[in-house]
Amino acid sequence: LVGAEQPRPEKRTMVVCLCCIQAIPSVSVQLLATAAALVYGHRTLFRNRTQSVWLRRVTLVTFAVTIIFALALGLLAVGLLVLSFNDDLRLSAFASFCAKSGSEPSPLDEHRCALFDSSLGSKVIEFGTGPGTNFKCLENITQSIEKYVAVEPNSYFLDSLNAEFNRSRLDFELDIVGTRGEDIDIADNGSYDSVIMTHVLCSVKSVETVLDNAEKALRPGGKMLFMEHVLAKDNTRLFYLQRLVAPILYIVGNGCKIRNLEDIMRTHFGERMDIDLTSFDGDMPKAMFFA
Question: N or C end of the chain: smaller count of CB under 10 Å?
């Protein structure tokens, strides 16, 4: 029709969820950026087409290696992204890894089991029991233990925890409490002879709150037993390695942050408790060599 007005195209707006973008772990972005930079850098460096036959072969080999390495970084980035958004998958994978590694002999067993003897007393509470890794150290001292409270918020540990308890043939009463160490409300506070924490304080949200609850649980004269991986000394090779893997460890290690726990404990407890801390360089399991 003459003079008819053409219909105007609809305006389309793209809404970007800033919260979703901010939720993406920075380590995934960094890994993907590194993978892209490797591929682009290789193409830029070897884009000269007048190369000799020998140099072309070198280019093909190095390009293949670059692609493989870039793909590995990309897969790691995607895997970390999936784990960061899927709590159930992350908790399940962490529990499976800990159960498998905890059931096998470890270089740390010597140090772990040295903590426990008949002086544990009759009532014991453990924060972060996991798959029951410490049960193997209690097989010969069960006659002194009557009640054992296992505080473990990750429900995916329950099967392996009970299985390890039965495998170790422990005969004391086991009470499993499925809550975080920060949130626990102990009915019989002030009556426990010993509190156990091994490889747990790195992954709690508030170390001070957990230590407060542990102290409340203890009877006068009771004791706390710790074995934790800690922050290495400044400017050492291990210190920089820990910083490098920290973002990955936070995701795959159930929120684990390598902390200076000695300073935290001494500051928190002050003069209220006698603190005896021993540092050692233990042979770590291969999968945890950085801890």
Answer: N
Length of the chain: 291
Query: Contact 178/153 with Cβ under 8 angstroms?
Result: yes
CA angle 45, 46, 48 (to 5 degrees): 115
Instruction: Please state the φ and ψ torsions of residue 81, each to the nearest 5 degrees.
Output: -65, -45
Round to whole Å and give the CA distance between 3 and 18.
45
Residue type at position 100: K
pTM: 0.80
pLDDT higher than 80, residue 257: yes
Residues 260-282 as b/e (b if ≥16 CB within 10 A, e otherwise) read ebeeebeebeeeebeeeeeeeee
Dist CA 214 CA 156 (whole Å): 23
Place of tokens 């399991």: 285
Q: Which of 206, 181, 205, 179 lies closest to 195, judged by CA?
A: 181
Q: Which residue in 227, 244, 217 sits closest to 279, CA to CA?
A: 227
Q: Is 209 exposed, middle or buried (0-12, 13-18, 19+ CB in 10 A)?
A: middle
Six-digit token string for 119:
């002086």
